[in-house]
Amino acid sequence: MKVHLVKNLTEEQIEEAVRVIVDGFCNDNGEITELVQICFNGNNIDNLKLYSRAMVRDANATSHVFVGTEGDVWPAPIISIGLCWEPGKALWATKEQRALGFDDLFSAISSETRAFWGEVKKIGDSLKAEHGLSSIAMDTFYVNMMLTDRHFRGRGYGSAIMRAIIDHAAQEGRKWSVGLMTQSAENRDWYASLGFKEVASSRIPAAPYGDFIPIYAFEPYETNLK
Hints:
By secondary structure, the chain is an alpha+beta fold. The protein has one domain (2-180): Gcn5-related N-acetyltransferase (GNAT) (Aminopeptidase). Helices cover 41% and strands 21% of the residues. The chain contains eight helices and nine strands. A six-stranded mixed beta sheet has the order 1-2-3-4-5-9, with helices on both faces. Helix 3 (45-62) packs antiparallel against helix 5. GO terms for molecular function: acyltransferase activity, transferring groups other than amino-acyl groups. InterPro entries: Acyl_CoA_acyltransferase, GNAT_dom, Trichothecene_AcTrans.
């Protein structure tokens, strides 16, 4: 197992990353199983592909893509992936970033789904503000996506990606903290096992697909203390 910080992904590699992300949120029948992704994408697999592609393209163009592979050499089949934005940057923050695929996604989703996006942003920003966490922090390496191919889970690939992210943030001259939020109790517990401290939580209405989605905020992980 090896984690690589990769630059300038080819179109083929971008599509492979999209496949890993989409597959990670679906079952063997191609049905979306993660409630938050059902709500984000209107339970539409094509929208989930647009969502994943827009995120990968943004990270590839403006920030950092970490991939886990079975062997030591890159390029190789992607097993796990982490998408992170360095201090002062954020996912889809500029017109140029949104043109990389987010605009296509937002045109495709329904007004009800757009309203859900707005509710997530409102609640997420409120949780951050309550605990002094900036929406675009100037000292925080922010993790927006961390996912392992579901056929390889439980083998340490996710932990290896997070260790690589933390190590990158901690390098001399950086000493960035690492920030993230998550929308499942399972992920909350996993991040807590890695040393992240939960500081706040809330619930987002998930109608018509479910009752609610939890959202958890964490204190930035101070890499100089690891």
